[in-house]
Amino acid sequence: MLLATGAHTHFSWSLQSMNVKHIFSIFLIFIVLGCSYEPERNTSHSNYDILIRNTDNTGIRWRQHFDDLISSDSLYLFMETGFKDNLLDIYINNELRVQDTISTIGQLGLSEYYTFERLGTSNIGLRIDKGQLLQIELTPEQNIWRVTYIQDSILIAQYSKHAPYYD
Questions:
Q1: What is the largest CA-CA distance in the chain?
Q2: How many other C-beta atoms can be found within 10 angstroms of the C-beta atom of residue 129?
């Protein structure tokens, strides 16, 4: 009887240590999976048209103060309305320079802006969610571009003579 109790105790302890090992293994698996988790990005290929407006005819509101902050030595991209967790690729002279996920901020009407060196830049390429590439061949005076996206419909790049402001 004493022997059976001892065997039972030993068996019970082995079962408990097995549970601890299993729990530790499960815990370790969750840690490994948690560390390797990346938020899901929109990986589908978007189907949209492209419109490039090379002249500034929008009549946007502008203020001299903001124009004074703009350098002719830089290239500015203002990603404006229509973006919602979209994957953006920016190419400068056909080289991928930026890959970012962007969303338009509420009523502000601005998702993000990017600044690049203007010297030596002859073209800009923009791609949303692995869709078609919007390619802009720059003229010397074009250093401010505003970009709007209408989900799965049209990607618009608009040259601007003035720095936009948002309020």
A1: 98
A2: 21
Burial per residue of 52-76, b for 16 or more beta-carbon CB atoms within 10 angstroms, e otherwise: eeeeeeeeeeeeeeeeeeeeeeebb
Distance between CA atoms of residues 156 and 134, nearest Å: 9
Report residue 27's pLDDT band, with 50, 70 and 90 as the boundaries: low
pLDDT in tens, 94-143: 999 999 999 988 766 788 889 999 999 999 999 999 999 999 999 988 88
Pairing state between β 74-79 and 134-137: unpaired
Three-state secondary-structure class, residue 157: strand
User: Which stretch of DSSP H or E encloses residue 120?
Assistant: none
Measure Cα distances from 56 to 66, 88, 162 in Å.
17, 24, 9
In the DSSP assignment, the letter for residue 106 is: G
Residue 116 CA to residue 137 CA, distance in Å, equals: 15
HSE-up (13 A, CA, CB side) for residue 77 = 25
CA nearest to 125, candidates 134, 137, 117, 116: 134
Q: What is the pTM of this model?
A: 0.67
CA separation, residue 153 to residues 46, 48, 106 (Å): 9, 5, 20
Encoded tokens for 129: 């969610």
